[in-house]
């Protein structure tokens, strides 16, 4: 098992742009915060409709990798490729990557003060391409429908998380990037979020989930990528990680 854990994923190769079979691919991604080398050659593939749990201890580079994928200015990407359905996102700015189909839900949720729930959703649909209709969003999130005229920042933590996910769906996204969606939420609310993510998966949307609650993330995910000091140390089945006590203890402290 130790050899497998430390292997570089075998479905990545040097002719990545032409031969990568996956729907979404990250290839040899490197990124820095100033002089700090935080993302050190990360590669992985995801097939359409999969949920991938991106895991690791604090400081392993999970959020930095997610931000680099989303093409945010920080961290600064110095090398690497990001492909979504044969589109090369690594040459795009963050807003261009969003238009191409990336939907980032950051840990702090970024609900806009002064706007109602509905206005937050409508603002997301100002620029084409538009995703789910408000009716469809409210069908998935009935709580948001009940509170659609309420200022978004006055919602509970769980409701704000729902609004942040709903706002991503209001765009025409292909890949949903979730950073710590369970943070600070009661278990019953986490159950609701997970039910929502399964529905989103059934719609064919691919999800990358960064989450400190590794056991819950692994139970939801199809596959897992584990990071350690900015590098991939495991890429494989989420079920296998759940069943491998040594792997969990070494890299996830569980």
From TrEMBL:
Record-linked Pfam families: ABC_tran (PF00005)
Family affiliation: Belongs to the ABC transporter superfamily.
A GO BP entry: L-amino acid transport
PROSITE patterns (UniProt xref): ABC_TRANSPORTER_1 (PS00211), ABC_TRANSPORTER_2 (PS50893)
ATP-binding listed as a keyword: yes
SUPFAM superfamilies in the record: P-loop containing nucleoside triphosphate hydrolases (SSF52540)
Keywords recorded for this protein, A-Z: Amino-acid transport, ATP-binding, Nucleotide-binding, Transport
SMART domains per the UniProt record, alphabetical: AAA
This protein's name: Amino acid/amide ABC transporter ATP-binding protein 2 (HAAT family)
PANTHER family: ABC TRANSPORTER ATP-BINDING PROTEIN (PTHR43820:SF2), HIGH-AFFINITY BRANCHED-CHAIN AMINO ACID TRANSPORT ATP-BINDING PROTEIN LIVF (PTHR43820)
Domain ABC transporter: 24-254
GO molecular function: ATP binding; ATP hydrolysis activity; branched-chain amino acid transmembrane transporter activity
